[in-house]
Amino acid sequence: MRISVIGCGYLGAVHAASMAQLGHDVVGIEVDVPKAELLASGKAPFHEPGFDELLSSSLASGRLRFSSAMADAAGSQVHFVCVGTPQKRGEYAADLRYVESATESLLEVLAPGELVVGKSTVPVGTAARLADLVTGKVPGALLAWNPEFLREGFAVQDTLHPDRLVYGLPAGADGETARALLDEVYAAIVADGTPQVVTDYATAEMVKTAANSFLATKISFINAMAELCEATGADVKQLADAIGYDDRIGRKFLNAGLGFGGGCLPKDIRAFMARAGELGADQALTFLREVDNINMRRRIRMVELAREVCDGSLLGKRIAVLGAAFKPDSDDIRDSPALNVAAQLQLQGATVRVTDPAAGDNIRRSWPQLDVVDTAEEAAARADAVLVLTEWKQFRELDPVAFGQVVARKAVLDGRQALDRDTWVAAGWSYRALGRRAG
Ligand code: UDX
């Protein structure tokens, strides 16, 4: 099939290359000319395991190209809209300007019989509004909503082997036509037996925000338990293991620590609350405000712990921050809990050195006030405390004996349950972690 992907940021670039991998003829439309050129040259503008290989092989197959001109989307049977929906500045609501402008410029080249497919995370009600716009301007064209659930660090696998496909469709014959087109796009994935949920626009839009809200709630639940563990001397890791053995609860997403960040969970729960308010249903989601509060409190607690191990004052203390991306295997620093902590430490007078295996350039660009170094050893040189704030494999595998030689004081704070407490304690370190006994 001929497919266009409008917006080649994180989601769109991975989607475009994956669709080419499935055998389709794909054009990725990206208004940022340098980004489109970079992608066309086979270079990924972000760090994502497996994506470079996927991009190169899709380009080499001749089935994938990139352009900055919407005119090149003309003639595609299916057009995926993959632009971002960030949080509005100073508000909880999602900023829909990119979705709206991408759809409007697509309408200039859209033809009857073609299908527009929204993949961006949007407030419920957006698809119905865009469908009116599409059919009003191009009678005979169709719109579907097909949310994307990919995780950074697993984006390629999640796109080619998703847990489920969700189609939000118009009623009647148009819905049947849209479904048939989507089934053709995803033929290989459907043939794998991937579950499909075929529904209306509103449900499809809500599936995404509900899923992210559930995940955020699960993380904040275990972090609330961590607060209780700190108050009682209990151990949150063992608690999570024990409750996680119950299939109904499950162990995944019960890792207590510095909490969630990134470009999705924080802004999605806030946008969901804002939309519920507009719909007069804000009471249904007031718990999400608490989910957000618990999450933000972990960052403050981490700074308190650092102050405690620095004898009550951070002024003039050297602190090493290991990890800055919002999660490992990513260079994404959007709403990074680690950088938030680093900045707070600096504000309280500490000399902070940050290192991250992938996010260094992004930190230098967006946080010029932070001192970024290349290795954990450089960051920790003569440090009074070492904070592990993103659980990269490189940090998990540090040898506490050798690493102990570079610091001034062997004090480690494990913000992500990344280290084996006993090994570090045996090497002479004092070990502190959120929700766990000191070692
Ligand atoms: C999330 C959803 O998982 C994905 O389905 C959706 O499409 C986009 O948003 P992502 O933002 O890539 O994906 O990251 P995710 O793996 O969900 O982690 C989000 C944050 O939660 C990270 O900061 C991570 O460190 C944190 N987290 C995750 C925890 O603190 N504890 C956990 O147990 C799991």
Automatic annotation (TrEMBL):
Pfam families: UDPG_MGDP_dh, UDPG_MGDP_dh_C, UDPG_MGDP_dh_N
GO molecular function: NAD binding; UDP-glucose 6-dehydrogenase activity
GO BP term, example: UDP-glucuronate biosynthetic process
Statement: the UniProt record of this protein carries the keyword Chaperone: no
Statement: the UniProt record of this protein carries the keyword Oxidoreductase: yes
The organism's place on the tree of life at top rank: Bacteria
Pathway entry: Nucleotide-sugar biosynthesis; UDP-alpha-D-glucuronate biosynthesis; UDP-alpha-D-glucuronate from UDP-alpha-D-glucose: step 1/1
Positions contributing to NAD(+) binding: K35, T85, T121, E152, K267, R334
Name this polypeptide is given: UDP-glucose 6-dehydrogenase
Species this chain originates from: Klenkia taihuensis
